[in-house]
């Protein structure tokens, strides 16, 4: 999975690209007055461990039941 694909998935949850620096994008959304931020590497192919780390980071803001269907292929 690529970083661009991850950005597209997180856009579905209301995140927008706030900035990018080097090969990483900072995604941000606001829920009420709460600011939620994710950092996504913009690599062509993400290592499994890196993908897991981003999913773990996102699961703080998005319930796993909503998030995981975007990453599983049955």
Q: Explain this structure to me?
A:
This protein is α+β, with helices and mostly antiparallel strands and 74 residues long. It has one domain (3-66): Hypothetical protein (Metal Transport, Frataxin, Chain A), CATH 3.30.920. 32% of the residues lie in helices and 30% in strands. The chain has 3 helices and 3 strands, in the order H-E-E-E-H-H. Strands 1-2-3 form a 3-stranded antiparallel sheet. Strand 2 and strand 3 form a beta hairpin. The protein is globular, with a radius of gyration of 12 Å. The protein starts with a helix and ends in a 7-residue tail after the last helix. The mean pLDDT is 93.
Kindly list the characteristics that best describe this protein.
3 helices, 3 strands, alpha+beta, three-stranded antiparallel sheet, 74 residues, Metal Transport, Frataxin, Chain A
In short:
The chain is α+β, with helices and mostly antiparallel strands. The protein is built from 3 helices and 3 strands, in the order αβββαα.
User: For the report, how would you describe the main beta sheet?
Assistant: 3 strands, antiparallel
Measured by DSSP, the beta-strand proportion falls in 25-35%
As a percent range, the share of helical residues equals 25-40%
Strand order of the largest sheet: 1-2-3
Bulk shape: globular
Give me the strand/helix succession. Answer: HEEEHH
- End-to-end separation in angstroms reads 16 Å
The DSSP helix count reads: 3
The CATH class label is Alpha Beta
Mean pLDDT: 93
Secondary structure category: alpha+beta
Instruction: Determine the CATH topology.
Output: Metal Transport, Frataxin, Chain A
Low-confidence stretches: none
> How many β-strand runs?
3
Number of domains: 1
CATH architecture: 2-Layer Sandwich
**What radius of gyration results from the CA coordinates?**
12 Å
Q: CATH superfamily, called what?
A: Hypothetical protein
